[in-house]
Amino acid sequence: MSLPGAAAVRVPPFPDDAFSRVLCVVAHPDDVEYGTSSAVAAWTARGIDVSYLLLSRGEAGMDACPPDRTRELRTREQLRAAEAVGVSEVVFLDHPDGVLEYGLGLRRDIARVIRGSRPDAVLIGSWDVEFAAGLNQADHRVAGLAALDAVRDAGNRWVFPELLDEGLEPHAARWLLVGGDPRPTHGVDVSGEPLERGIASLEAHGEYLAGIPGHPPPRLMITGITALQGRAMGVPHAVLLRAFDFSAPPPIALEAMAAASSA
Ligand SMILES: [Zn+2]
Question: Which of 34, 85, 143, 231 could in theory staple to 40 by disulfide, Cβ–Cβ 3.0 to 4.6 A?
Fold first, then answer.
């Protein structure tokens, strides 16, 4: 029986030493800035190295602005956004915005960056059709799925052997972290300074956001998103993530072993 007022089950923080190097992989400039960048600010403040990989430059994102100008504008704004939260490096791949295609070429390009940067955690967005914020966008679904597969590709010597010819040895990241998943396993407390820096990182996309009718002010939006997520951790502001630990056996394997020993 649960008692009135008993504390709800809370989403735990990551262990302090869970990872020291994170690569965030997203489709467009601004994708990291809807909450996740506050977690990035919390990590970089603790000395964790964070880099970004953008699969496109978001050149199809502004109706009133031709792609060539938008590409330059959004690249510039993304670099400022990354700087606001202490990101060490930003890589752009120049796949086409709006028509991003899942395929071996995209997986190879992401795997190449993973092998070069050698993160112990790769942070991606949800690849599901429906995610925490509603219906997911096509490029976001492609980016999430391609990045998930590229994490495994990067660790397999015999997949994309041409990367070996480029001097890129296999690299197995330990963690896959997924933002926007409705089944979070861990949270990052971003109350205080990380939240402020996260707000500044979305504000860095000022010219782009000005072209979106009715977009709420970044301060209001990021404060609200992280306040909602904070409830699950019991802190004022948080970012929730679903974490897959590739070094741990999948739960079904443990269950199967238990079943075998009691059979
Ligand atoms: Zn996007």
Answer: 85
Q: Distance from the CA of 13 to the center of ligand 1, in angstroms?
A: 27
> For the chain, what are the domain ranges?
21-262
* pLDDT tens readout for residues 154-206: 999 999 999 999 999 999 999 999 999 999 999 999 999 999 999 999 999 99
Domain 21-262 homologous superfamily, CATH: LmbE-like (3.40.50.10320)
Q: Which residues are within 8 A (CB) of 217 and not within 5 positions of it... i.e. 6 or more apart? A: none
pLDDT < 70 stretches in the chain: 1-9
Q: What is the pTM of this model?
A: 0.94
CA of 253 to the centre of ligand 1 (A): 36
